[in-house]
Amino acid sequence: MLPRAGLSWRRHARRLCTAVRPRIEDEGDWFYSSEWWGSDFESHSRAVLRSTSEKGNGVVSVFAYPSSRPNEVYWPETEKWLQQRYAEIKPGYEQNGHFRILGYQWRVLRFNDNTRQSTVKIMAAYREAEPHSLYFMQQAHCLAVPYLKSMVAVGMSAISSCHYELTAAIHGKKRMHILCIGHGGGSLPLFLASKIQGAVVHIVEIDPIVISASIQAMGFPAFSVMTQSGKRALSKPDTINEVLWKGIHERLCLYDADAEKFILENNTLYDMVFIDAYDGDDIFPHKLWDPDSPFLKSLSDHLHPDHGTVVVNLHSDSDILNPMESASGFYQHLLPMGKYVSRVCRAYKDVLVNEHTNDARAGFGLGFTVSVPWVCNSTLVVCRGFGSGGAFDNRDIVLNTLISKSTQVEHVMNLPFSCLQYIKRAANLLHNS
């Protein structure tokens, strides 16, 4: 645990707060979690899918909850957009492309009826030419859980601090190879592919039931599914998939595979890797953080040597170190994590950065953690090429660097949430052992 940050980054943060650009409404704001979280709202939910996993996730189910946003006054605008998309894809058949929106829902993926594994928002619509048709479209702009926003905000600010040309990737002027380990409902990879035009996103999910649930009940694009041979499961998307996803689903590749086996057999060099892989017992598999595992060794080989950035979602332990009794409420958030989580962080830092920097050609690397507001999660970030020299062992300097990049990330990606509220919670720099 480092000393409390000095005034420099705090002044910087206050200055940024007074010059924030006008922001679109964040439909995934935690304020709306009351619509799908908590026992008081269980009476408003209904199960739309239920199946038993053979991959350790127990009973996999999807529950639907009413959503208050977007307001009904905005539906005609979306219906017009769908009609225009249909006309572009099926010229001459515009009369068949009149859509009507039925409403919006939260869809929550659960393991064993208890663990809320993933939450997405979907739009339900039908085509007037086929009154009995029903289409679900996951809302790509909506990240409903704070830890996902933390992963995006801190991860993108970190890779931007590694001299990576993120703006060029966002505008589609260069390819950005991203790996997501753990799929859930698919909101994170869908968000990344929609916001970064140059992103090619590989997604690895070990449980085929979860993949089916995300597509059938959570509106994830079906054209993303890949076969074991590495080809698309669908030879070409149907018209509706093209209307909903053209320009995005071609850059999503969803694999039914074990993460360790996938990374060992894959030849892609990744710019970014996002890991959120908890099983039905809410456990992060040991082989995904064992420093001697084939997984971490191979992941290191598949991470770009100059700017490769790995972002990991971690649950807080029950084995938390006793906090200082005199610590303030704010400072409590910055206290050391439990021993188990600390071991995970150390393993990633040692294998992906420390061993990598033994190569004389390698740049300086960095590892740090961020506590996530409102939920008991931490975001681990390990990146290569953050800077040079020991100055980046100083938390103030790291925070100032991340903050200076975060405003650019917010603007260019057109994020509906503030990166600063997550970056300022950076709690721990992982020093070399």
UniProtKB/TrEMBL annotation:
Protein name: S-adenosyl-L-methionine-dependent methyltransferases superfamily
GO biological process: methylation
Keywords, ordered alphabetically: Methyltransferase, Transferase
GO MF term (any one): methyltransferase activity
Family, similarity comment: Belongs to the methyltransferase superfamily.
